[in-house]
Specification:
2 strands, mainly alpha, single chain
Length: about 500
Protein backbone atom coordinates (compact mmCIF):
# COMPACT_ATOMS: atom_id res chain seq x y z
CA UNK A 1 0.00 0.00 0.00
CA UNK A 2 1.60 3.23 -1.12
CA UNK A 3 0.64 6.53 0.47
CA UNK A 4 0.94 9.85 -1.32
CA UNK A 5 0.17 13.37 -0.26
CA UNK A 6 -0.26 16.64 -2.09
CA UNK A 7 2.64 19.11 -1.91
CA UNK A 8 2.59 21.49 1.03
CA UNK A 9 0.70 24.69 0.47
CA UNK A 10 0.54 27.87 2.48
CA UNK A 11 -0.97 26.91 5.82
CA UNK A 12 -4.19 28.65 6.81
CA UNK A 13 -4.35 30.35 10.20
CA UNK A 14 -4.58 27.78 12.98
CA UNK A 15 -7.83 27.47 14.90
CA UNK A 16 -7.89 28.57 18.54
CA UNK A 17 -8.30 24.94 19.64
CA UNK A 18 -5.18 23.92 17.72
CA UNK A 19 -3.20 26.82 19.19
CA UNK A 20 -4.19 25.63 22.66
CA UNK A 21 -3.09 22.14 21.70
CA UNK A 22 0.29 23.48 20.61
CA UNK A 23 0.93 25.30 23.87
CA UNK A 24 -0.14 22.25 25.87
CA UNK A 25 2.23 20.07 23.82
CA UNK A 26 5.17 22.43 24.27
CA UNK A 27 4.52 22.82 27.99
CA UNK A 28 4.21 19.06 28.52
CA UNK A 29 7.43 18.29 26.69
CA UNK A 30 9.37 21.03 28.48
CA UNK A 31 8.05 19.85 31.85
CA UNK A 32 8.98 16.29 30.95
CA UNK A 33 12.61 17.12 30.21
CA UNK A 34 12.71 19.42 33.23
CA UNK A 35 11.55 16.63 35.56
CA UNK A 36 14.13 14.23 34.11
CA UNK A 37 16.90 16.78 34.70
CA UNK A 38 15.58 17.41 38.22
CA UNK A 39 15.77 13.72 39.08
CA UNK A 40 19.33 13.65 37.76
CA UNK A 41 20.40 16.73 39.72
CA UNK A 42 18.98 15.27 42.94
CA UNK A 43 21.61 12.57 42.70
CA UNK A 44 21.72 8.91 43.80
CA UNK A 45 18.25 7.52 44.39
CA UNK A 46 15.92 4.75 43.25
CA UNK A 47 16.19 6.26 39.77
CA UNK A 48 19.88 7.26 39.71
CA UNK A 49 22.77 4.87 40.42
CA UNK A 50 25.32 5.81 43.06
CA UNK A 51 28.94 6.56 42.12
CA UNK A 52 31.61 9.05 43.23
CA UNK A 53 31.47 12.53 41.71
CA UNK A 54 34.20 13.71 39.35
CA UNK A 55 33.61 17.43 39.97
CA UNK A 56 34.35 19.77 38.29
CA UNK A 57 33.77 17.22 35.49
CA UNK A 58 30.25 16.08 34.59
CA UNK A 59 27.98 14.38 35.44
CA UNK A 60 26.63 17.05 37.77
CA UNK A 61 24.46 16.07 40.73
CA UNK A 62 23.91 16.68 44.43
CA UNK A 63 23.47 14.21 47.27
CA UNK A 64 19.97 15.21 48.31
CA UNK A 65 18.82 11.63 48.94
CA UNK A 66 15.19 12.27 48.01
CA UNK A 67 12.66 9.70 49.22
CA UNK A 68 11.81 6.73 47.04
CA UNK A 69 8.20 7.90 46.73
CA UNK A 70 9.19 11.45 45.71
CA UNK A 71 11.79 10.31 43.17
CA UNK A 72 9.51 7.67 41.69
CA UNK A 73 6.70 10.18 41.39
CA UNK A 74 8.91 12.73 39.66
CA UNK A 75 10.28 10.31 37.09
CA UNK A 76 6.90 8.69 36.39
CA UNK A 77 5.43 12.16 35.89
CA UNK A 78 8.31 13.07 33.61
CA UNK A 79 7.64 10.10 31.34
CA UNK A 80 3.87 10.63 31.45
CA UNK A 81 4.19 14.31 30.49
CA UNK A 82 6.61 13.33 27.76
CA UNK A 83 4.20 10.85 26.23
CA UNK A 84 1.31 13.32 26.50
CA UNK A 85 3.32 16.14 24.94
CA UNK A 86 4.42 13.95 22.06
CA UNK A 87 0.87 12.84 21.27
CA UNK A 88 -0.46 16.42 21.44
CA UNK A 89 2.38 17.69 19.24
CA UNK A 90 1.75 15.02 16.60
CA UNK A 91 -1.98 15.85 16.58
CA UNK A 92 -1.18 19.55 16.23
CA UNK A 93 1.19 18.81 13.36
CA UNK A 94 -1.56 16.88 11.56
CA UNK A 95 -3.78 19.94 11.98
CA UNK A 96 -1.27 22.20 10.28
CA UNK A 97 1.24 23.23 12.95
CA UNK A 98 4.55 24.02 11.26
CA UNK A 99 7.14 25.14 13.80
CA UNK A 100 10.54 26.15 12.50
CA UNK A 101 12.81 23.10 12.04
CA UNK A 102 15.66 25.19 13.42
CA UNK A 103 13.65 25.74 16.58
CA UNK A 104 13.02 22.02 16.94
CA UNK A 105 16.68 21.17 16.31
CA UNK A 106 17.71 23.83 18.82
CA UNK A 107 15.29 22.44 21.40
CA UNK A 108 16.59 18.95 20.81
CA UNK A 109 20.19 20.15 21.12
CA UNK A 110 19.47 21.82 24.48
CA UNK A 111 17.75 18.67 25.76
CA UNK A 112 20.65 16.49 24.61
CA UNK A 113 23.23 18.73 26.31
CA UNK A 114 21.23 18.83 29.55
CA UNK A 115 20.82 15.05 29.70
CA UNK A 116 24.45 14.38 28.72
CA UNK A 117 25.54 16.45 31.73
CA UNK A 118 23.30 14.45 34.07
CA UNK A 119 24.06 11.06 35.67
CA UNK A 120 22.25 8.02 34.22
CA UNK A 121 18.54 8.15 34.99
CA UNK A 122 16.19 5.17 35.17
CA UNK A 123 18.82 2.48 34.58
CA UNK A 124 22.13 1.09 35.85
CA UNK A 125 23.31 -0.10 32.43
CA UNK A 126 25.83 2.72 32.05
CA UNK A 127 27.63 1.48 35.15
CA UNK A 128 28.03 -1.88 33.41
CA UNK A 129 29.39 -0.08 30.36
CA UNK A 130 31.92 1.77 32.52
CA UNK A 131 33.10 -1.43 34.17
CA UNK A 132 33.42 -3.38 30.90
CA UNK A 133 35.24 -0.44 29.34
CA UNK A 134 37.69 -0.35 32.24
CA UNK A 135 38.31 -4.10 31.97
CA UNK A 136 39.08 -3.69 28.26
CA UNK A 137 41.27 -0.62 28.79
CA UNK A 138 43.35 -2.64 31.28
CA UNK A 139 44.00 -5.25 28.59
CA UNK A 140 41.54 -7.92 29.75
CA UNK A 141 38.53 -9.39 27.94
CA UNK A 142 35.14 -8.25 29.28
CA UNK A 143 33.72 -11.46 27.82
CA UNK A 144 35.81 -13.47 30.29
CA UNK A 145 36.50 -11.17 33.24
CA UNK A 146 33.55 -10.17 35.43
CA UNK A 147 32.91 -6.89 37.27
CA UNK A 148 33.37 -8.73 40.58
CA UNK A 149 36.86 -9.77 39.51
CA UNK A 150 37.69 -6.17 38.61
CA UNK A 151 36.45 -5.03 42.02
CA UNK A 152 38.54 -7.67 43.82
CA UNK A 153 41.59 -6.41 41.94
CA UNK A 154 41.22 -3.11 43.80
CA UNK A 155 40.30 -1.00 40.79
CA UNK A 156 37.91 1.81 41.86
CA UNK A 157 35.72 1.51 38.76
CA UNK A 158 34.82 -2.04 39.81
CA UNK A 159 33.08 -0.63 42.89
CA UNK A 160 30.22 0.82 40.81
CA UNK A 161 29.16 -2.48 39.21
CA UNK A 162 25.41 -3.10 39.72
CA UNK A 163 24.70 -6.10 41.93
CA UNK A 164 22.66 -7.93 39.28
CA UNK A 165 25.60 -7.95 36.84
CA UNK A 166 28.55 -8.36 39.21
CA UNK A 167 29.26 -11.93 38.12
CA UNK A 168 28.24 -11.55 34.46
CA UNK A 169 30.66 -10.90 31.59
CA UNK A 170 29.70 -8.44 28.86
CA UNK A 171 26.84 -9.35 26.51
CA UNK A 172 27.46 -6.51 24.04
CA UNK A 173 29.13 -6.66 20.65
CA UNK A 174 32.84 -5.93 20.09
CA UNK A 175 32.24 -2.43 18.72
CA UNK A 176 30.16 -1.59 21.81
CA UNK A 177 33.10 -2.77 23.89
CA UNK A 178 35.44 -0.58 21.84
CA UNK A 179 33.27 2.50 22.53
CA UNK A 180 33.30 1.67 26.25
CA UNK A 181 37.06 1.17 26.23
CA UNK A 182 37.52 4.52 24.47
CA UNK A 183 35.53 6.30 27.17
CA UNK A 184 37.51 4.50 29.87
CA UNK A 185 40.82 5.43 28.25
CA UNK A 186 39.81 9.11 28.38
CA UNK A 187 38.49 8.87 31.94
CA UNK A 188 41.10 6.72 33.67
CA UNK A 189 40.03 5.46 37.09
CA UNK A 190 36.95 7.70 37.30
CA UNK A 191 33.64 5.93 36.71
CA UNK A 192 31.90 9.32 36.58
CA UNK A 193 34.08 10.63 33.77
CA UNK A 194 33.66 7.32 31.92
CA UNK A 195 29.89 7.76 32.13
CA UNK A 196 30.23 11.31 30.83
CA UNK A 197 32.22 10.26 27.74
CA UNK A 198 29.79 7.44 27.04
CA UNK A 199 26.97 9.98 27.16
CA UNK A 200 28.90 12.22 24.77
CA UNK A 201 29.05 9.35 22.23
CA UNK A 202 25.28 8.87 22.60
CA UNK A 203 24.57 12.59 22.29
CA UNK A 204 26.56 12.87 19.06
CA UNK A 205 24.82 9.79 17.64
CA UNK A 206 21.39 11.15 18.58
CA UNK A 207 22.07 14.49 16.91
CA UNK A 208 23.47 12.77 13.81
CA UNK A 209 20.12 11.03 13.31
CA UNK A 210 18.26 14.31 13.86
CA UNK A 211 20.34 16.14 11.26
CA UNK A 212 20.04 13.26 8.78
CA UNK A 213 16.25 13.28 9.11
CA UNK A 214 16.19 17.04 8.63
CA UNK A 215 18.24 16.83 5.46
CA UNK A 216 16.28 13.91 4.02
CA UNK A 217 12.91 15.64 4.47
CA UNK A 218 13.89 19.28 3.96
CA UNK A 219 11.68 19.64 0.88
CA UNK A 220 8.50 18.55 2.71
CA UNK A 221 7.57 20.83 5.62
CA UNK A 222 4.95 18.56 7.20
CA UNK A 223 7.08 15.42 7.12
CA UNK A 224 10.11 17.37 8.34
CA UNK A 225 8.25 18.62 11.42
CA UNK A 226 6.81 15.19 12.15
CA UNK A 227 10.27 13.59 11.95
CA UNK A 228 11.68 16.05 14.48
CA UNK A 229 8.74 15.41 16.80
CA UNK A 230 9.22 11.65 16.59
CA UNK A 231 12.97 11.82 17.18
CA UNK A 232 14.72 15.12 17.83
CA UNK A 233 12.46 16.45 20.61
CA UNK A 234 10.72 13.18 21.50
CA UNK A 235 10.94 12.98 25.33
CA UNK A 236 10.51 9.19 25.28
CA UNK A 237 13.54 8.69 23.04
CA UNK A 238 15.54 11.38 24.84
CA UNK A 239 14.82 9.54 28.07
CA UNK A 240 15.70 6.09 26.69
CA UNK A 241 18.81 7.04 24.74
CA UNK A 242 20.24 10.08 26.56
CA UNK A 243 18.92 10.02 30.12
CA UNK A 244 19.41 6.27 30.44
CA UNK A 245 22.56 6.43 28.32
CA UNK A 246 21.85 3.19 26.50
CA UNK A 247 24.18 2.01 23.79
CA UNK A 248 21.20 1.36 21.51
CA UNK A 249 21.51 5.00 20.47
CA UNK A 250 24.88 4.31 18.86
CA UNK A 251 23.54 1.25 17.07
CA UNK A 252 20.43 3.07 15.87
CA UNK A 253 22.51 5.92 14.45
CA UNK A 254 24.94 3.62 12.64
CA UNK A 255 22.16 1.44 11.22
CA UNK A 256 19.99 4.36 10.15
CA UNK A 257 22.84 6.22 8.48
CA UNK A 258 23.78 2.99 6.71
CA UNK A 259 20.28 2.54 5.34
CA UNK A 260 19.98 6.07 4.01
CA UNK A 261 23.20 5.57 2.05
CA UNK A 262 21.03 3.37 -0.17
CA UNK A 263 18.93 6.21 -1.58
CA UNK A 264 21.15 5.76 -4.62
CA UNK A 265 23.02 2.71 -5.78
CA UNK A 266 26.74 2.32 -6.41
CA UNK A 267 29.89 0.70 -5.10
CA UNK A 268 30.80 3.51 -2.68
CA UNK A 269 27.27 3.76 -1.29
CA UNK A 270 26.94 0.00 -0.95
CA UNK A 271 30.26 -0.20 0.86
CA UNK A 272 29.30 2.63 3.22
CA UNK A 273 25.92 1.02 3.91
CA UNK A 274 27.55 -2.33 4.66
CA UNK A 275 30.13 -0.78 6.98
CA UNK A 276 27.58 1.27 8.92
CA UNK A 277 24.96 -1.48 9.23
CA UNK A 278 27.76 -3.89 10.13
CA UNK A 279 28.79 -1.44 12.87
CA UNK A 280 25.21 -1.38 14.17
CA UNK A 281 25.14 -5.18 14.32
CA UNK A 282 28.58 -5.16 15.95
CA UNK A 283 27.08 -3.02 18.72
CA UNK A 284 23.71 -4.76 19.15
CA UNK A 285 22.98 -7.99 17.24
CA UNK A 286 19.22 -7.35 16.65
CA UNK A 287 20.15 -4.62 14.17
CA UNK A 288 20.80 -7.48 11.76
CA UNK A 289 17.11 -6.97 10.96
CA UNK A 290 18.16 -3.82 9.07
CA UNK A 291 19.76 -6.14 6.50
CA UNK A 292 16.26 -6.71 5.11
CA UNK A 293 16.13 -3.06 4.10
CA UNK A 294 19.59 -3.24 2.57
CA UNK A 295 18.81 -6.38 0.57
CA UNK A 296 15.49 -5.06 -0.73
CA UNK A 297 16.82 -1.64 -1.72
CA UNK A 298 19.80 -3.11 -3.58
CA UNK A 299 18.07 -6.17 -5.01
CA UNK A 300 18.46 -4.92 -8.61
CA UNK A 301 22.07 -3.79 -8.20
CA UNK A 302 24.47 -6.73 -7.78
CA UNK A 303 27.43 -4.34 -7.54
CA UNK A 304 25.83 -2.48 -4.63
CA UNK A 305 24.94 -5.75 -2.88
CA UNK A 306 28.46 -7.07 -3.32
CA UNK A 307 29.97 -3.86 -1.95
CA UNK A 308 27.58 -3.93 1.01
CA UNK A 309 28.51 -7.54 1.75
CA UNK A 310 32.18 -6.57 1.64
CA UNK A 311 31.52 -3.75 4.10
CA UNK A 312 29.69 -6.07 6.48
CA UNK A 313 32.49 -8.63 6.40
CA UNK A 314 35.14 -5.93 6.84
CA UNK A 315 33.51 -4.85 10.11
CA UNK A 316 32.16 -8.04 11.66
CA UNK A 317 34.83 -10.64 10.90
CA UNK A 318 37.90 -8.78 12.26
CA UNK A 319 36.07 -7.53 15.35
CA UNK A 320 34.87 -10.99 16.38
CA UNK A 321 38.21 -12.58 15.54
CA UNK A 322 39.89 -10.09 17.86
CA UNK A 323 37.25 -10.48 20.59
CA UNK A 324 37.34 -14.29 20.41
CA UNK A 325 34.80 -17.05 20.82
CA UNK A 326 33.75 -15.72 24.20
CA UNK A 327 32.27 -12.67 22.46
CA UNK A 328 30.20 -14.86 20.14
CA UNK A 329 28.92 -16.91 23.08
CA UNK A 330 28.07 -13.75 25.03
CA UNK A 331 26.07 -12.20 22.20
CA UNK A 332 24.20 -15.46 21.55
CA UNK A 333 23.40 -15.83 25.24
CA UNK A 334 21.97 -12.32 25.23
CA UNK A 335 19.72 -13.20 22.29
CA UNK A 336 18.30 -16.09 24.31
CA UNK A 337 18.27 -14.22 27.62
CA UNK A 338 15.72 -14.54 30.38
CA UNK A 339 12.35 -12.86 29.82
CA UNK A 340 11.91 -9.36 31.19
CA UNK A 341 9.56 -8.67 34.06
CA UNK A 342 6.91 -6.85 32.04
CA UNK A 343 7.09 -8.81 28.79
CA UNK A 344 3.66 -9.71 27.32
CA UNK A 345 4.09 -13.51 27.31
CA UNK A 346 3.84 -13.59 31.11
CA UNK A 347 0.06 -13.20 30.81
CA UNK A 348 -0.17 -16.47 28.88
CA UNK A 349 2.37 -18.11 31.17
CA UNK A 350 0.21 -17.38 34.19
CA UNK A 351 -2.95 -18.54 32.46
CA UNK A 352 -1.36 -21.86 31.39
CA UNK A 353 0.84 -22.35 34.44
CA UNK A 354 4.00 -22.62 32.36
CA UNK A 355 7.20 -23.62 34.24
CA UNK A 356 9.93 -22.95 33.29
CA UNK A 357 8.90 -20.07 31.08
CA UNK A 358 12.09 -19.11 29.19
CA UNK A 359 11.95 -21.88 26.54
CA UNK A 360 8.22 -21.42 25.99
CA UNK A 361 8.58 -17.64 25.66
CA UNK A 362 11.50 -17.88 23.25
CA UNK A 363 9.66 -20.39 21.05
CA UNK A 364 6.39 -18.44 21.09
CA UNK A 365 8.25 -15.19 20.43
CA UNK A 366 10.08 -16.66 17.44
CA UNK A 367 6.93 -18.13 15.89
CA UNK A 368 4.88 -14.95 16.31
CA UNK A 369 7.79 -12.83 15.06
CA UNK A 370 7.85 -14.78 11.79
CA UNK A 371 4.06 -14.57 11.38
CA UNK A 372 3.84 -10.86 12.13
CA UNK A 373 6.87 -10.09 9.95
CA UNK A 374 5.20 -11.76 6.97
CA UNK A 375 1.94 -9.88 7.59
CA UNK A 376 3.72 -6.55 7.96
CA UNK A 377 5.80 -7.04 4.83
CA UNK A 378 2.60 -7.86 2.97
CA UNK A 379 0.30 -5.13 4.27
CA UNK A 380 2.32 -2.15 5.52
CA UNK A 381 2.37 1.14 3.57
CA UNK A 382 5.43 1.14 1.32
CA UNK A 383 6.44 4.71 2.11
CA UNK A 384 8.44 6.92 -0.23
CA UNK A 385 9.57 5.38 -3.55
CA UNK A 386 13.09 6.79 -3.18
CA UNK A 387 13.52 5.09 0.20
CA UNK A 388 12.60 1.45 -0.43
CA UNK A 389 14.82 0.33 2.45
CA UNK A 390 12.52 1.77 5.13
CA UNK A 391 9.52 -0.55 5.02
CA UNK A 392 11.33 -3.95 5.13
CA UNK A 393 13.66 -2.86 7.94
CA UNK A 394 10.76 -1.36 9.88
CA UNK A 395 8.48 -4.36 9.36
CA UNK A 396 11.01 -6.84 10.76
CA UNK A 397 12.02 -4.55 13.62
CA UNK A 398 8.39 -4.00 14.66
CA UNK A 399 7.67 -7.72 14.48
CA UNK A 400 10.65 -8.48 16.69
CA UNK A 401 9.77 -5.78 19.23
CA UNK A 402 6.09 -6.69 19.40
CA UNK A 403 6.48 -10.26 20.64
CA UNK A 404 10.01 -10.54 21.99
CA UNK A 405 10.34 -11.81 25.59
CA UNK A 406 13.07 -9.18 25.97
CA UNK A 407 11.34 -5.80 26.28
CA UNK A 408 13.12 -2.55 27.07
CA UNK A 409 12.05 0.99 26.10
CA UNK A 410 15.47 1.77 24.60
CA UNK A 411 15.08 -1.10 22.13
CA UNK A 412 12.49 1.05 20.34
CA UNK A 413 15.26 3.41 19.23
CA UNK A 414 15.65 1.08 16.24
CA UNK A 415 12.15 1.89 14.92
CA UNK A 416 11.54 5.58 15.63
CA UNK A 417 13.90 6.98 12.94
CA UNK A 418 12.31 4.62 10.40
CA UNK A 419 8.76 5.53 11.44
CA UNK A 420 9.77 9.18 11.02
CA UNK A 421 10.43 8.50 7.32
CA UNK A 422 7.06 6.77 6.80
CA UNK A 423 3.80 8.59 6.01
CA UNK A 424 1.84 9.83 9.05
CA UNK A 425 -0.54 6.98 9.87
CA UNK A 426 -2.03 5.24 12.88
CA UNK A 427 1.26 3.38 13.18
CA UNK A 428 2.54 6.51 14.95
CA UNK A 429 0.17 5.88 17.86
CA UNK A 430 1.17 2.22 18.12
CA UNK A 431 4.89 2.94 18.44
CA UNK A 432 4.31 5.84 20.84
CA UNK A 433 2.05 3.67 23.03
CA UNK A 434 4.65 0.90 23.09
CA UNK A 435 7.47 3.24 24.04
CA UNK A 436 5.40 4.94 26.75
CA UNK A 437 4.22 1.66 28.30
CA UNK A 438 7.71 0.16 28.43
CA UNK A 439 9.21 3.37 29.84
CA UNK A 440 6.64 3.45 32.64
CA UNK A 441 7.24 -0.20 33.51
CA UNK A 442 11.02 0.21 33.63
CA UNK A 443 10.81 2.87 36.34
CA UNK A 444 11.98 3.96 38.77
CA UNK A 445 15.00 2.06 37.46
CA UNK A 446 17.79 1.37 39.94
CA UNK A 447 15.69 -0.75 42.31
CA UNK A 448 13.72 -2.43 39.54
CA UNK A 449 14.12 -5.91 41.03
CA UNK A 450 13.84 -4.98 44.71
CA UNK A 451 11.10 -3.86 47.07
CA UNK A 452 10.32 -0.16 47.14
CA UNK A 453 9.37 1.79 50.24
CA UNK A 454 6.68 2.52 51.32
CA UNK A 455 4.94 -0.77 50.64
CA UNK A 456 2.14 0.78 48.57
CA UNK A 457 4.74 2.06 46.11
CA UNK A 458 6.07 -1.44 45.60
CA UNK A 459 2.53 -2.77 45.10
CA UNK A 460 1.78 -0.04 42.57
CA UNK A 461 4.98 -0.79 40.68
CA UNK A 462 4.12 -4.50 40.63
CA UNK A 463 0.63 -3.83 39.25
CA UNK A 464 2.16 -1.71 36.50
CA UNK A 465 4.93 -4.10 35.48
CA UNK A 466 3.04 -7.40 35.83
CA UNK A 467 -0.45 -6.31 34.83
CA UNK A 468 -1.11 -3.00 33.10
CA UNK A 469 2.01 -2.76 30.94
CA UNK A 470 1.92 -6.35 29.58
CA UNK A 471 -1.72 -5.75 28.64
CA UNK A 472 -0.75 -2.48 26.93
CA UNK A 473 2.00 -4.23 24.95
CA UNK A 474 -0.43 -6.95 23.88
CA UNK A 475 -2.94 -4.27 22.85
CA UNK A 476 -0.24 -2.55 20.76
CA UNK A 477 0.59 -5.83 19.00
CA UNK A 478 -3.11 -6.52 18.35
CA UNK A 479 -3.55 -2.98 17.01
CA UNK A 480 -0.63 -3.54 14.68
CA UNK A 481 -2.21 -6.71 13.34
CA UNK A 482 -5.58 -4.99 12.95
CA UNK A 483 -4.01 -2.16 10.97
CA UNK A 484 -2.36 -4.68 8.65
CA UNK A 485 -5.48 -6.74 8.08
CA UNK A 486 -7.90 -3.81 7.78
CA UNK A 487 -5.45 -1.46 6.06
CA UNK A 488 -7.01 1.41 7.96
CA UNK A 489 -3.67 3.06 8.43
CA UNK A 490 -5.17 6.54 8.61
CA UNK A 491 -8.60 8.00 9.47
CA UNK A 492 -10.97 8.60 6.52
CA UNK A 493 -9.99 11.65 4.52
CA UNK A 494 -6.50 11.96 6.01
CA UNK A 495 -4.79 10.11 3.17
CA UNK A 496 -5.45 11.77 -0.14
CA UNK A 497 -4.57 8.75 -2.21
CA UNK A 498 -3.60 5.16 -1.70
CA UNK A 499 -2.94 2.19 -3.86
CA UNK A 500 -2.26 -1.40 -3.18
CA UNK A 501 1.08 -2.48 -4.61
Amino acid sequence: MQVTRPPDQASPPLAARTRGLIWAAIASMVVSIGLMVTVGVLGPSVAVPSFPSAAPWPPYFTTTRASEAATSGLIWLGVAFGGLGLVLALIAARRGWRPSPRTLIGGGLLAVIALVLMPPIGSTDMMDYAVYGRITALGHSPYRMTPAQLERSGDPVGDVAPFAWRNAPSVYGPLATASEAGASALAGTSAARTVFWLKVWNGLAYLAVALALDRLLRSDASRRVRAHLLWTVNPLMLFAVLAGGHIDGLAAAAGFLGLICLRRMGLARGLAAGILIGAAIDIKAPFALYLAGLAWAARRSPRTLAAAALGLVAVLVPSYLLAGRAAVRAVLSRAAGSPDLYQPWQLLNRALGQHPIARFDDTAGLVTFVILAVVLLWRMPSGLPDMPFVMPALALSLAWLAFSPQQRPWYDAMVFPLVALMPATRLDWVVVARALAAAVAELPGVTFYTTLRPHWLSLFNNVLSRGIVPLALVAAAVALLWLCLSRRWAPPGELTASAVT
